[in-house]
Specification:
By secondary structure, the chain is mainly alpha-helical. The chain is about 70% helix and about 0% strand. The protein is built from five helices and no strands. Helix 2 packs across helix 3 and helix 2 crosses helix 4. The longest helix has 14 residues. It is globular. It starts with a helix and ends with a helix. The relative contact order is 0.23.
Length: about 70
């Protein structure tokens, strides 16, 4: 089972791999910078809609983040 902290780590790792800024990925995913920052820091549980939006913004599959 994926924890919010490990999910956030994978999101951040994927963002860094793409050499993208947090604001750029947040904008592509339709999220606020604060919301994406909270996800990357393991705060809260993102909804399925948010997970799928992040996958599209990071060009990865859900299994890559989960």
């Amino acid at each position: 089972m994926t924890t919010p902290k490990s999910f956030g780590r994978e999101v951040k790792r994927s963002r860094h791999f793409l050499n993208e800024t947090l604001p750029a990925v947040a904008k592509r995913a339709g999220l606020s910078k604060g919301h994406l920052s909270a996800i990357e820091n393991g705060k809260g549980n993102p909804s399925l809609t948010t997970i799928l939006a992040l996958c599209r913004a990071l060009y990865v599959s859900p299994s890559d983040l989960l």
